[in-house]
Predict the 3D structure of the following.
Amino acid sequence: MEVCILPLGEVDEGTLIFLSEKLAKIFGSARVLERSKIPERAFNNLRMQYNSSVILYSLHTPGGCDVVLGVLDDDIYAGDLNFVFGEAELGGKRALISLFRLREHGRAREEMIKERALKEAVHEIGHVLGLLHCKNRMCVMHFSNSLLDTDIKSWKFCERCLRKLQRSNDDTPCTASGGM
Ligand SMILES: [Zn+2]
Ligand SMILES: [Zn+2]
């Protein structure tokens, strides 16, 4: 499976490379696409945030990409939520994550932000592959209400989620093995 990472606006290069290396190990293949602009119509002037759904559904899905993962470093919200870490098209092709809230609490180190970004990326891609939220707090599909949840969970699918993935798509190699 090919994951295409699409930087939207200014995004740290090191984080993009980190994501593509790790996602390639987890899902089979990953590459970084050419940078694109955040659609201006997604900006909400009252909230001073971007509407994540508007961005998500504006993402193009180039040929050869099984999943397009938009990555931005601006604050995003969805529906009634104050903010979201990301959003995905359940059972579709598109996912989106923002790094903005991942460095909250000031002192988060670079490595920690990258690790959080990976967890959110795998989580949203899991939704694209049809997975819903999981009760297992260690599972990457556990819902993150806060960064604490993100830090507790791993970047791996639990056995149950992994089995669901394998059942729904026998030809997709999805090994949640390999180092961080
Ligand atoms: Zn989710
Ligand atoms: Zn799970």
Observations:
- The chain is about 30% helix and 20% strand.
- Strands lie at 2-8, 29-32, 43-44, 49-51, 67-72, 76-77, 86-88, 94-98.
- The longest strand covers residues 2-8.
- The mean pLDDT is 92.
